[in-house]
Amino acid sequence: MMQTNKIAGKIMTALEAFHGSHPAIDANNILIVRGMSRKRFDSEKMDVVLSDLLGDMGARQIDMFSKEGGNVIGIMDERIRENVQIQSETDVSGIHKLKESLEAMNCHVEYVLGVQKDMGIFIVTWVELEGIGPRFVEVVVANLQ
């Protein structure tokens, strides 16, 4: 559990979203943290910011829709289901559907999936297209073992 907290803490600190953040799930094998970033960067460059962040942490970015990405998302989903009752099946494309629903609400959304040793890392951030409101951040860190 300490490793998930350490990784999530580094991410939230780097995105200046640590202050006021709160865990949605805090369990032995998974930590989901939500917050609002105070860091200002061009929303069109959010994907680069997230990719660079993974690289700076020594994590390897993986394609969400690759076989490896599907496996990581599947394990993360298992960890969530160990803690929360969910009726639907695992759906890797559910992340893309989430992005589409946020975009339909006039938001720019970016996400990245990575692996650092035996830990899976998923970061999603979104902001209104006008850039007026806050930049929201959600981080999922899960033990893949």
Number of helices: 4
Give the radius of gyration: 14 Å
The main sheet orders its strands as 1-2-6-5-4-3
- Please outline the major beta sheet: 6 strands, antiparallel
Shape category? globular
The helix content, as a percent range, equals 25-40%
Count of distinct strands: 6
How would you describe this structure to a colleague?
Strands 1-2-6-5-4-3 form a 6-stranded antiparallel β-sheet, with helices on both faces. Strand 4 and strand 5 (119-128) form a beta hairpin. It starts with a helix and ends with a strand. The mean pLDDT is 89. It is built from 4 helices and 6 strands, in the order αββαβααβββ. It has helices at residues 2-14, 46-56, 67-81, 93-104, and strands spanning 22-26, 30-37, 60-62, 107-116, 119-128, 135-143. It is of the alpha+beta class and 145 residues long. The radius of gyration is 14 Å and the shape is globular. 35% of the residues lie in helices and 31% in strands. The chain has one domain.
In short:
With 145 residues, this protein is an alpha+beta fold. 35% of the residues lie in helices and 31% in strands. It has a 6-stranded antiparallel β-sheet, with helices on both faces.
Features:
4 helices; six-stranded antiparallel β-sheet; globular; 35% helix; 145 residues; alpha+beta
List the helices and strands and how they pair.
Elements (H helix, E strand, L loop, with lengths): L1 H13 L7 E5 L3 E8 L8 H11 L3 E3 L4 H15 L11 H12 L2 E10 L2 E10 L6 E9 L2
Antiparallel strand pairs: 1-2, 2-6, 3-4, 4-5, 5-6
